[in-house]
Each structure stands twice: as structure tokens, then as C-alpha cells.
Amino acid sequence: MPFDIAGLLAARAGEGYALQGKYVNAQVPRMLHAIGFDKVFERAEGAYYWDADGNRYLDMLAGFGVHAVGRNHPVVRQALHTVLDAGLADMLQFDAPLLMGLLAEQLVARSPGMERVYFCNSGGEAVEAALKFARCATGRPRVLYCDHAYHGLTAGALSVNGADEFRKGFGPLLPDTRIRFGNIDDLERELRKGDVAALLVEPIQGKGVNIAPDGFLRDAQTLLRAHDALLIVDEVQSGLGRTGRFYAHDYDGVQPDIVTVAKALSGGFVPVGATLMRPGVFEKVYSGLDRVFVHASTFMGNALAMTAGLATLSVLDDEQLIANAHARGDELMNGLRAIAKTQPTIVDVRGRGLMIGIEFGKPPSLSGKAMWSTLNAARPGLFAQMVVVPLFTRHRILTQVAGDYMPVIKLIPPLCLTSDDVREFLGAFAEVMAGAEKPSGLALGFGRTLVKQALDRR
Ligand SMILES: Cc1ncc(COP(=O)(O)O)c(C=O)c1O
User: How many angstroms separate the alpha carbon of residue 127 from the centre of ligand 1?
Assistant: First the structure.
């Protein structure tokens, strides 16, 4: 029988959780079931997707940031169809693909100071290239990274991961060194040792949505230059318009030596990453014909990934999505700050554009304090999970906790979010938070969800 993907999807509909449980990462369906997230979704468009019963969900997560232009964007889809149907001589490996050159040209045009691009298949790979290039360009072994940093989970990227829970069990890692995020004295102390290749930093950390303190990146760049070390800025999550500027580091007035991007560049369709370099870095790494493929990957620059990237950049411009991210971000932050005034468990609302964190903390009331201490003793950050679950199960809005053990939830919706979507989110969030600090509030509802899900499973 000829292969029939539509027939296969129809015949096996609804089996995803069972198959993952049996053949892939069995912990994922277990976790999703425990918190009531184990739905089957059928369709998606823009900032919404629909479950098998036709219920609409609002997406405030954008697939960890990949759906920046909105899910299934018609322009990106059409471009992919066109290139697929063109039957190109793709991944020939011994030619110079036009699409790769065109996407590099577009990225460089949007990245002042950058001259060349290395393409790969993910954010982690873009970081791996940055780590290798910085070592090679400086001839030094050590990269500095920040606490709470997240740059991916491949071995090199894990060596610069600022959270011990990810590193545990995978050592020994590279001899990189953690400094406090935003602490210039830590940076200077390490640079004085003379063996530092680079500082790798997210301008806004994905884990916790921590913004680099005012002036930190500028001061860091000055110090790094004085010590002949490089500044690598990881824009895998914060880049390509998410924060209301093309790069989040545009707010900091720096021109890094190396920049990494990925996620949004995919258009939500084809995995892709890119490492951009200032003049001088490339020449050190690819220093002669004998080193022509000294760092490379088989799929780099494939036609579908390059097309997705080109179409995505065009949609960002044509639909003015970066300005929209700025405006909708302001609306969200203003609304959240108004809610925070009435909710003692919200201790901070922070972010830029559509990368926003809501931090919870111990409320002043006696019952609130008791509730907070009990939850934190059970698991630090549990309160944030108790907000994320009813937003999804009661209001059909997908958000996430901003990192393990963190009392912070993160909003990184598609950049095409509308003012109506903002109002929908704020209304739902205010309702979930009402009475949050009372024992009869969030904790009880969360407990009921866990019990119901556990009973369902039996
Ligand atoms: C800042 C940053 N860098 C790197 C990565 C790793 O990207 P990937 O998951 O595509 O390997 C991520 C992923 O979340 C990220 O947020």
C-alpha cells in the first residue's frame, strides 16, 4: 500500500500519549496527566489552537518562543510549499546554496557590527558554535556564564548552564565558570586570570525572566575588550522582535562579538539556528582551505530552514510585529501591575515587549504566610504551578513556570497577540489570583486537580 500520511493520522488519532509513554520519554505524558494538561490538540492558527472537542486555547507560550509570527502563518506555509514543490538540488554539500546566502544577507542587515553567519539546526547548536568560535578566536579555554543561565542542553551548552539540576549526572563538563548575573566585580575578577575567551550572556534570562541590570552589558563589553575577551549574546529566546526591538541587547547599547539566534527564525516550522560574528572571528576559525569544514553540520542551510527564516523575517517587517510586541507588551505589563496592586502574592512584574515574568512571594497576612511556607516546603516554586494549572484547565490559556523551583510564571506569546487577547489573559489571570493567598483559594483548587487526575488514571 502506498504511504498515506493523512490516512495514518486519521487511523491513529488520539494515540500520541500512549505511544510517547511506550517509546519516547515516558515521563512527559506522566507529568502532563498529573497536572491535567493531557489534551489532544488538532489545529492551530495565530495565537490560538483547538482541542479535539473544538475548544479554543490562547497560546501565551508560543512553543517556547518558536511561533513568534503566529502558528501556521500563511506566508511561511506558502513559501515552504513553493520551495518543496520546486524540487531544488538541496543539501548537495558541494555548492553554494542561494537561499543560505540570502538569509545570511538578511540577518547581517539587521545586526549592526555583524559580518558573517554560521547556520545550524537549533539554539543549542548555535551556542556550541559560539563557544568553539570564541575559544578559537582568542586561543583561550574558559567561558564565563551567569547563574540561572540557560543556553541549551548539549554538552558544551550544559557547561555554561547556570542551574545545577540540569548538570547533575552529566559531568565532567568543560572548565567554564559561573558568575553572578549582572555582577561586574565577578567578571573583572575572572578576567584578571588571563584565560577567559568570552562572557556568554542572555540580555533577558529565559529562566526567571531576569533583565540584565542597567549598564551591565555596556560595562561588561568595555572590560572584556580591555582583556581581549569576547562578548557573546544569546538571543535564541529574546531575539527577532520578542522584546519590542529586533534584539533585546539593542536596549543595552552594545555591539556583541558573537550573537546566537534560533527559535523564531524557524517560522514555527523548520528547526534552524544561526551564530553571527563580528569581523575577525571567522578568519581565525576558518583560517585556510585546510579548515574549510572545521565546524559544520550536515543539515546546515537546508532549503526549507532557510526559506522559513526568510519568510519569517519578511512577516516580522510586513506585519510590523516588532512594534506590536512593544505595544501589546506595554498593555500586558500595565494590566498586570494593576492586578499586582490588589494581590499581595505578586511581588514583581517585569519584562520587555512580549517577554514578561510575574514573580510571586510570601504575602503579609498570617494565613498567606502559612500557605506560602507550606507550599515552599513541599516544593519551591509550587505556587507558580498552581497559577499555571487553572489558567489552562479553567481558562484554556497556556503559560509556563519560568524555570524549575522558581516562583515566577513567564509569558512569551506569539508577537501577533491582539489587545483582545491581552484583555482575555488579564481577565483570566485576575480571576485565578482572586483569593490566592487564602487556604480555600488556589491551593485547594490545585489539590483537587491533582486528586482528580490521579483517580482518572486508575
Ligand atoms: C537563551 C537560549 N539559548 C539556547 C537555547 C537552546 O535552544 P534549543 O532548545 O533550540 O537547543 C534556549 C532554549 O530555550 C534558550 O532559551
Answer: 8
Whether residue 172 has a cis bond before it, omega within 30° of 0: yes
State if residue 203 touches ligand 1 by the CB under 6 angstroms criterion: no
* Protein residue with least CA distance to atom 4, ligand 1: 151
What is the C-alpha to C-alpha distance for residues 73 and 16, in angstroms, rounded to an integer? Answer: 24
Mean pLDDT over the full length of the chain? 95
State the average pLDDT over residues 347-364. 96
Residue reference for cell 511581588: 347
Residue closest via CA to ligand 1's atom 13 equals 152
Give the Cα separation of 424 and 396 in Å (integer).
Answer: 10
Complete DSSP assignment for 222-276: HHHHHTT-EEEEE-TTTTTTTTSSSSGGGGGT---SEEEE-GGGGTTTS--EEEE
CA of 342 to the centre of ligand 1 (A): 35
Distance from residue 150's CA to the centre of ligand 1 (Å): 7
pLDDT of 367 higher than 90? no
Q: Which domains does the chain have, with CATH numbers?
A: 35-69+320-457 (3.90.1150.10), 74-318 (3.40.640.10)
* Residue pointed to by grid coordinates 491535567: 36
Measured by CA distance, the residue closest to atom 2 of ligand 1 is 151
Distance 130 CA to ligand 1 centre (A): 13
Q: Whose CA is nearest to atom 3 of ligand 1?
A: 151
What is the Å distance from ligand 1's center to 77 Cα?
A: 24
The 10s digit of each residue's pLDDT in 252-270 is 999 999 999 999 999 999 9
User: What is residue 449's predicted lDDT score, i.e. its pLDDT?
Assistant: 72
Q: Is 128 in the pocket of ligand 1 (CB under 6 A)?
A: no
Mean pLDDT value across residues 72-84: 98
Q: Residue 355 in contact with residue 242, Cβ under 8 Å? A: yes
* Cβ within 8 Å of residue 3, ≥6 positions away: none
Side-chain-side CA neighbours of 266 within 13 Å: the count stands at 22
Q: Residue 319: which residues within 8 A CB-CB, separation 6 or more?
A: 69, 416
User: What is the percent of the chain where pLDDT is above 70?
Assistant: 97
Taking the alpha carbons at both ends of the chain, their separation in whole angstroms is: 39
